[in-house]
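Reproducibility note. Readers wishing to regenerate the assembly model reported in the main text can use the exact inputs given here. Chain order matters: entities are listed in the order in which they were concatenated for prediction.
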Amino acid sequence: MPQKLTIVIVGGVAGGASAATRARRMNESAEIILLEKDEHVSFANCGLPYYIGGEIAERQKLLVATADLLRTRFQIDVRANQECKKIDRAANQLSVRDHLKQEDYDLAYDKLILSPGAAPLAPPMENADAPGVFTLRNLADADKIREHAIKTSARKAVVVGAGFIGLEMAEQFHRLELDVALAELQTQVLPPLDPEMSYPLEQALRDRDIQLFLGDGIASVMTDERGNASGVKLQSGEAAIGDLVVLGLGVRPNVQLAKAAGLEIGATGGIAVNRFSQTSDPDIYAVGDAAEYTYGPTGQQMRVPLAGPANRAGRLAGEHAATDGSAEMPEVQGTAIVRVFEQAAGITGLSMKMARKLGYDPLSVTIAANHHAGYFPGAKQLALKLVFEKESGKILGAQCTGVAGVDKRIDVIATAMQLGATVRQLAGVDLCYAPPFGSAKDPVHMAAFSACNYLDGIDAFLESDADLEGRQVVDVRTEKEVSSKPLAGAEGTLPIPLDELRQRLGELDPAKPTVVSCGVGVRAHAAARILRQNGFSDVQNLSGGALVRQWAVAKRTAE
Amino acid sequence: MPQKLTIVIVGGVAGGASAATRARRMNESAEIILLEKDEHVSFANCGLPYYIGGEIAERQKLLVATADLLRTRFQIDVRANQECKKIDRAANQLSVRDHLKQEDYDLAYDKLILSPGAAPLAPPMENADAPGVFTLRNLADADKIREHAIKTSARKAVVVGAGFIGLEMAEQFHRLELDVALAELQTQVLPPLDPEMSYPLEQALRDRDIQLFLGDGIASVMTDERGNASGVKLQSGEAAIGDLVVLGLGVRPNVQLAKAAGLEIGATGGIAVNRFSQTSDPDIYAVGDAAEYTYGPTGQQMRVPLAGPANRAGRLAGEHAATDGSAEMPEVQGTAIVRVFEQAAGITGLSMKMARKLGYDPLSVTIAANHHAGYFPGAKQLALKLVFEKESGKILGAQCTGVAGVDKRIDVIATAMQLGATVRQLAGVDLCYAPPFGSAKDPVHMAAFSACNYLDGIDAFLESDADLEGRQVVDVRTEKEVSSKPLAGAEGTLPIPLDELRQRLGELDPAKPTVVSCGVGVRAHAAARILRQNGFSDVQNLSGGALVRQWAVAKRTAE
Ligand SMILES: Cc1cc2nc3c(=O)[nH]c(=O)nc-3n(C[C@H](O)[C@H](O)[C@H](O)COP(=O)(O)OP(=O)(O)OC[C@H]3O[C@@H](n4cnc5c(N)ncnc54)[C@H](O)[C@@H]3O)c2cc1C
Ligand SMILES: Cc1cc2nc3c(=O)[nH]c(=O)nc-3n(C[C@H](O)[C@H](O)[C@H](O)COP(=O)(O)OP(=O)(O)OC[C@H]3O[C@@H](n4cnc5c(N)ncnc54)[C@H](O)[C@@H]3O)c2cc1C
Ligand SMILES: CC(C)(COP(=O)(O)OP(=O)(O)OC[C@H]1O[C@@H](n2cnc3c(N)ncnc32)[C@H](O)[C@@H]1OP(=O)(O)O)[C@@H](O)C(=O)NCCC(=O)NCCS
Ligand SMILES: CC(C)(COP(=O)(O)OP(=O)(O)OC[C@H]1O[C@@H](n2cnc3c(N)ncnc32)[C@H](O)[C@@H]1OP(=O)(O)O)[C@@H](O)C(=O)NCCC(=O)NCCS
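Running the prediction on these inputs yields the following structure tokens for the assembly.
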């Protein structure tokens, strides 16, 4: 009988616990040891903000699989409060610190899976560890923040960083009836989005009187006479006052162990792995926030610190470690979503600014449409931005904001991207439609149609934040619409309602670079087609119309 | 200057109006004539049931684009109440009946687009046209039904046919506080679904005391002494009593015109077309309910009487007619959805029964999972059935039922199918996840994982309606679960809670064909893996566990 296979897993949550259970299902006889330096394994990190805010009322709910369950059901040797301190690859052995017993021991492995996650960024600064300053990664952090927010007399919270977690915390502190200030170094909330697409979230925050400091990073923590945090000093010199400070500045991958063991680290700072999540040492796997994945839009290795990929990669690594084989870890699109009060914002793949940064020659269209049939009660407008490659039409990414149906559109497009689709293929997807659920032409179709029109030279889309100076800007909305909501950031706009355009062509100069705009872009599209067929040689449709223009201009002037 | 291109379109709603607007956008100079035999063009057919029930309160809302708008904005010569009576292909000319003026005239065309839709099936039978008997296709029908339901003393409605429209009508009559009886020839509601997947809808109907007659077709209409409908007599001899009868028996494509003109009719009875929607006469296009599409799962031509395909095909046909070129009409997956009270049911592609009927060797898995993270408040369970090809793993179809998130899962899978994906590719889709929106492993992933496990021989799934006779059935739920909800249609089940299974293997016979079951299939999967690795040679997981088993058995015994 061959020697029992010993699989040791470092990190007992998203990637680690997923690896452990799949490894067990694939291999009843292996010894599977799960090391977790903290108290809890398999908890719902993603639920922590909602637990703090009380939207998730029972702490118990956050314990997705208890250590007991993993032990009984999956025969996993769960070792909480035990930290892997060193990997000795030559000896196939780890050095482990038992934090309860306060002692170290060696642990042999045949296969090692690293899923140590990431640590919240906490830049060195004055008073960084004053009482009342928190980061959020695990249940202990959540307990502390919750306690501070509820049990002390905290009245105002300062959240630093308006990424996914920062936004969730701002929302949840508001739920706790704290005043909230939110500071972000970038000039927008949710920096992965293009600026204009983040604006609806910004509005949702401002609607709740959440004080926003955008384009302003944290310089230091301020303290009161007792040394407790009393707010943060920002780089601009401004102060955000509060008796509770949460830093949501992003994460740093936990690669120290791997580095010390001489494992290869990738260009983006995560542990380098192949498609089976094997590191440069094939007996050692790495998954989750500490590792890199193949990023779909670029085909490059990249860190994607999200729970979905961690779960899926952990599952496959567990299988591979347990059986010496598995499917490859598919490409990851970086699909993510956040709720900020009534608003949701989702993204998959590349934003326009990121696509440009990476040297693509990207095009984009933004459409706004109802999340289900407009004639059915409860229809809500969403905005959908599609980013695609000019040459091939390949979808590079999408962003969506709205109060309903955002997740569906992002998931449909993420699925199309996973399969390498072009916008032309996206235009043909056959989505379900009944009035309560969608439209005969879904927003996804509208975006794809527009993208195809762009590629085919049928329409051209001007980005919503473009400088309109020197162009002939035709606003084809009705007079009433124009006067009640003039096109933002545009002077000398020519208002000609679409239905009068054919008769009033003489008022326009066909030789001039012309931009048409309307409410969201639909009428402008019809107008652009009329102009193009009447000798106007340079016609562009202002992407997303007056609606998205307003967001873009608001963001432009904020910079 | 070349002669003006004249495009005539027959049928002014989903396919026809879409063709007209796109044709105009692509060609400013064409003459575009839209013939509609009835009063209204461009109305929301799909909204009619909700208008009848009052959920859509304003009739006006159903008029998506008015004739005036089409005239002014799109310079379309809208001719309502004018019916195309004949196509003279040799002369490129139509014979048109003006129903208002009560006269006929000839109309020349260069390109002709047929989108005449379909007509409700109304089998010849006794009293078929008694007052109080209705079919529903257009606004006039809706007005009549609404008037009858509201203004007469109607207290009970009989709906015949439990397809999409029949179900919507049953729901909406209930909303009007009518008693409702629903009769269906098939032994299930929503016949496109596999029987067990239709059961949650059936429950939703029964919960409202809607009287169901399943497996019973209509024989005749019954009338009262004044000759008004008083219900329907069913083939079984039973009577469904009501003072309002709506027939929702499906549709018959309007192909008479095309047939008379000698255009080719396809094998499924729709007008045969190529990928540009051109009929056997390349100057004549056909789209919508009257035509056929290439059906994705089979690659065969098929009628798919749904609004999405009609809109998209109309758009492309309009472009092709106007410019002599367009993208091809992509394959259609037959993706559809219906709401029945709180329940939704969606389908894309082939059901298991249909796949079998078509000669495939299909496999299926059914999973049940929460529509978003279970630890986040408001999570609702949905059931998702994935049908796929044994050899290739190609996705053939999916069905989903639940009270939330059904449309999203169907759309994701429909998108994957559009791109020819296998279940292996589906397992890798990178969907958005935050607690209010999904799970780190989405139900789509769970279904795809299970399908891959099936293909890889890691687990095998027994269909939920299988005969368990002669098998060793192990129920791995807790004692409490088993006693409170015994596994339906199973005798002599061996209850061994999963967490005791390893210790109690001796109670089982490894040589016997073994079926494991639990609540929804997750624990049974773990159990199956234990058994398989302990010498059990034939182990199957009861797909969807006790939950779906209960639906399947309820349907089986109903037959
Ligand atoms: C507040 C919050 C909200 C989030 N919300 C979302 C969301 O909505 N959607 C989403 O997709 N993602 C979200 N995430 C991110 C998601 O939780 C992570 O991407 C995911 O948990 C990463 O999995 P992992 O296994 O790499 O790391 P983790 O789940 O963090 O697990 C790593 C574990 O390893 C342990 N560990 C580290 N070093 C050692 C060692 N040397 N020895 C033993 N144990 C060690 C750590 O203590 C930790 O418990 C959120 C994260 C946080 C913190
Ligand atoms: C009550 C109801 C609910 C529905 N719900 C949904 C749903 O939720 N989701 C979904 O996808 N689909 C739904 N449908 C189906 C959808 O409406 C059709 O698939 C779609 O309208 C088909 O488009 P079409 O252009 O082929 O036909 P239609 O939209 O019916 O248009 C055809 C038009 O042609 C006219 N016409 C016919 N012959 C002539 C002629 N000789 N001369 C002039 N005019 C003529 C007809 O009067 C008709 O107005 C529903 C249909 C109905 C009736
Ligand atoms: C829960 C956790 C321990 C993983 O446990 P798990 O048993 O692998 O996962 P699940 O309970 O979700 O079950 C999934 C398994 O059931 C299978 N399954 C799901 N539904 C099924 C059904 N109806 N029938 C049969 N099998 C089914 C899946 O295929 C999968 O098995 P496989 O991996 O062998 O293919 C791990 O994901 C975890 O710790 N999660 C919490 C931490 C976390 O993810 N944090 C970040 C997000 S908040
Ligand atoms: C409404 C109807 C007349 C079609 O009109 P339409 O002008 O083609 O359609 P829409 O108003 O939806 O506009 C779609 C057009 O706007 C474009 N568009 C949408 N959003 C846009 C945006 N933000 N910016 C630019 N263009 C946009 C689309 O690309 C499309 O143009 P294209 O076809 O030239 O590519 C026709 O679909 C109809 O009659 N519908 C009702 C009947 C029906 O469908 N019944 C069944 C379902 S209830």
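We highlight two features of this model. The pocket of flavin-adenine dinucleotide (ligand 1) is lined by residues A 10-16, 35-38, 45-46, 48-49, 83-84, 115-117, 136-138, 165, 254, 257, 288-290, 305-308, 310; B 433-434 (CB under 6 Å). Chain B has four domains: 6-117+252-323, 133-169+186-249, 342-455, 464-558.
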